[in-house]
């Protein structure tokens, strides 16, 4: 399989690949991402194989708008204000998952990691496919995440159906914030600092 390179005007072609249960690549506001439909077991298996990623480690769910999170996670008023403060943006929020979600969104866990990227191409793709996507950084498991489309193409050539030939906007992966406890816990440091997170949390009392 030859990986097709599309420009920013050809996202409809990449969306067709996503809906056809294929693995694709596109830029985000953090690092470059690899994405699949959250409803495809075949795409999930292919992505895990491509990444050489442990199958017990859930992927982040990416949606195009904050309002879509309500269908996936339990969000009270205070947590809703946290989402509104930081999304779209370089943050992944860990929330309590709703029941009966596709298995590959949570791998059977009670929580779900969700983010809304602040990148016009990512958002255009998400709003065109109209389904949540499972997205992970473009790298082999435990190796440095890639930022440039050409590097992703070189590493995963012939393994991806297609990618958008545009670089990511960031230099590091998203901050991961666990909101399932009495106060936010930073699981992974990133562009948004713990000080910023806790400041907003206190404002939302």
Question: What key phrases describe this protein's structure?
Answer:
single chain, 205 residues, alpha/beta, DHBP synthase, eleven-stranded mixed sheet, globular
The coarse overall form would be globular
CATH fold naming = DHBP synthase
In helices, the fraction of residues equals 25-40%
* Poorly predicted ranges: none
Spatial separation of the terminal alpha carbons: 53 Å
SSE pattern:
EHEEHEEHEHEHEHEEEH
**Beta fraction:** 15-25%
Task: Please name the CATH architecture.
Answer: Alpha-Beta Complex
In CATH, what is the homologous superfamily?
DHBP synthase
Secondary-structure-based class equals alpha/beta
User: Mean pLDDT, nearest integer?
Assistant: 94
Largest sheet data: 11 strands, mixed
CATH class equals: Alpha Beta
Helix count from the secondary structure assignment: 7
Radius of gyration: 16 Å
Number of domains: 1
Number of strands: 11
What do these coordinates show?
It is built from seven helices and eleven strands. It has one domain (4-203): DHBP synthase, CATH 3.90.870. The termini are far apart. Strands 1, 2, 3, 4, 5, 6, 7, 8, 9, 10 and 11 form an eleven-stranded mixed β-sheet that branches. It is 30% helix and 21% strand. The chain is α/β, with parallel strands linked by helices and 205 residues long.
Topology:
Layout: E1 4-6, H1 11-19, E2 24-26, E3 33-37, H2 41-51, E4 60-62, E5 73-74, H3 77-86, E6 91-97, H4 103-106, E7 111-115, H5 120-129, E8 133-137, H6 149-156, E9 162-164, E10 175-178, E11 185-188, H7 194-203
Parallel strand pairs: 1-9, 2-9, 4-7, 6-10
Antiparallel strand pairs: 2-3, 3-8, 4-8, 5-6, 6-7, 10-11
